[in-house]
Amino acid sequence: MKLPLLLCFSTFMAWTQTCHALFVPVSPVTIGKSFFRVATTALFDAQDQHRNRRTFLNNDIPKLFAPVVLATSLIKKSPVSAAIMDTNTPGASTFKPGQTIGVEEAKNRFILAIKEVDELIENYDEISKGGNGDNVRRYLGTVGVKSHMYGISKVLRELRDEVDDIVEFTETIADFESYLFQAEGAAYQSLFVEYSSAKGSPETFLATAKKDIIVMRKYMGDLAKQLNLDV
């Protein structure tokens, strides 16, 4: 009896996670009722057949997985690249799945990204006025695709062969990305802190984001030097 129960539970968890991740338009109540009906039928069948393991594996397991097969068959298939980036979005066409953007384009985008970060730092109070974390995130390239910071990790990967010390370059990229993610996280939290139990205000989280951005900019300067870019 333990084997069927374990399989039922494992199948149910896999099914619900699959539906959730792929946005299958099926009601949770419908999922629960359907699965419970199929699972209990399989369990009773297993009992009636004297818990014959061979029968259970041949007959009951297919019954348990039938709802999963049905659910996945209802999903509209999309290209893998669609889960990464919508290249039809204006401004995102620079990045095409499986293609490089080229060294010169990458250098140009990185230089422009540095200039935009400088603009963000210089005008930070105005940009973040009213606790507007999304304005900061737009400059960081994590909201929208207009900023040259958008896709910056891909840009930097394009330039790895342009430096003398790839290990140092890779480590500097890691430091840069660390502060980028921290700044993004603080700016994002500023949008919801007033509605959560977290201590602080939008302004304090945005102040933290600014500190991270300033350190991030330092690492961008280090990367520019390694690339012999005049910024």
Give an overview in words.
By secondary structure, the protein is mostly helical. 65% of the residues lie in helices and 0% in strands. The protein has helices at 2-21, 28-48, 53-73, 103-122, 124-127, 133-140, 152-158, 166-189, 202-226. α1 runs parallel beside α3, α4 packs across α7 (152-158) and α6 packs antiparallel against α8. It starts with a helix and ends in a 5-residue tail after the last helix. The model is unreliable at 18-36 and 67-92 (pLDDT under 50).
Report Rg: 26 Å
Order of helices and strands: HHHHHHHHH
Strand content: under 5%
Give the strand tally: 0
- Estimate the mean pLDDT confidence: 74
Write a concise keyword list for the protein shown above.
mainly alpha, 231 residues, 0% strand, 9 helices
What's the helix and strand layout?
Blueprint: H1 2-21, H2 28-48, H3 53-73, H4 103-122, H5 124-127, H6 133-140, H7 152-158, H8 166-189, H9 202-226
Brief description of this entry?
This protein is mainly α. The chain contains nine helices and no strands.
